[in-house]
Design goal:
327 residues, alpha/beta, 12 helices, globular
């Protein structure tokens, strides 16, 4: 079997990023154990890491030159979740975003420092949307290494991809070459960035393969918890802008994830390599679906959801480990 280009893709979902962080921590620990490499990290086994919103933050974290472990990513949410979504600073009303971005920016600055997109350990692809130019933005490390105007501080990339409308203000960032952009959360068009990752992989030259086709890829796509909340027709039919403000973001994330998963399964099926695409879609369990509930109780429930998924899918996760080790 030819060596595959390995891709990790992580959905958006705010504080629900705890769930994929827990699942990926299990995968990393199994890789360390099986390979007898206690200091190995996820970035040692994936050629490309893609992320949107909280998934984009995780991607930046996993690819940072400091070689952060997957368990440290969990700690980031546990220790700083309430700093990012500070309920004491919650803004009420419809005229302003819910939270000041100061907490989020401090956490990202402390974690990522002055590292740039061009310095990531492996290739990355992180989504955002430019509100002034009205276009999708893809932060990619290959382009950052090639063009100064496309190279950004990693903390600014993470800030931009997580600037969820109604939650945080628009991110005003500048490239190291001085180009200014005004960006919001990439989940507006790619809550599940897996398809974007496939396109990025296809146009990238990797050590093992240049411009890989679909049959040259092995993809692990991780969700942030299935949203099962139903909306009552009798109430929803009369909602206006205010009534839809919160549900529309939840629906965008769920619908994006479902559509992209469908597209990916069809693409790999037609290519005759179904087993080269794996979608890990955990349930929320008792955790709340709110993207900003960083209470101790809810973070515990999110961790429980991730741990429960691991427990119920050991064979599937160990198969992923095998594929990564013996690719």
């Amino acid at each position: 079997m030819n060596k595959k280009v390995t891709v990790l893709s992580i959905d958006g979902g705010g504080i629900r990023g705890v769930i994929p962080a827990v699942i990926l921590n299990y995968i990393e620990k199994r890789l360390q154990s099986r390979a007898d490499k206690p200091n190995a990290t996820l970035a040692d086994y994936f050629d490309l890491v893609a992320g949107t919103s909280t998934g984009g933050i995780l991607a930046c974290y996993y690819l940072h030159p400091s070689r952060y472990s997957a368990s440290e990513a969990i700690d980031m949410y546990v220790e700083h979740g309430k700093e990012i979504f500070n309920r004491k600073l919650l803004r009420y009303g419809v005229a302003r975003e819910k939270y000041p971005a100061t907490g989020l920016e401090k956490v990202l600055n402390d974690c990522m420092g002055d590292t740039t997109l061009a310095q990531t350990r492996k290739n990355c692809m992180i989504t955002a949307y430019d509100v002034t130019e009205r276009k999708a933005v893809f932060f990619t490390s290959p382009e950052a290494r090639k063009y100064e105007y496309k190279n950004y501080l990693l903390r600014d990339v993470a800030r931009a991809t997580s600037a969820a409308p109604t939650y945080f203000e628009v991110a005003a960032v500048k490239s190291t070459g001085g180009a200014a952009s005004y960006l919001i959360d990439g989940a507006m068009y790619a809550g599940n960035p897996t398809m974007c990752a496939v396109v990025e992989a296809n146009k990238t030259v990797f050590e093992s393969c240049a411009n890989p086709a679909i049959t040259d890829l092995y993809i692990v796509s991780v969700g942030t918890g299935k949203e099962k909340k139903k909306y009552d027709y009798r109430k929803a039919k009369d909602w206006g802008a205010i009534g839809w403000a919160k549900p529309v973001i939840d629906i965008l994330l769920s619908a994006s994830a479902e559509v992209v998963d469908y597209q990916m399964r069809q693409l790999f099926a037609v290519a005759g390599c179904r087993d080269c695409y794996v979608r890990l879609e955990p349930e929320l369990g008792n955790a709340k679906p709110d993207m900003d509930d960083a209470s101790d109780a809810n973070i515990r429930q999110l961790k429980d959801a991730g741990e429960g998924f691991v427990k119920d899918h050991l064979d599937e996760l160990d198969d992923i480990v095998n594929r990564l080790l013996f690719n």
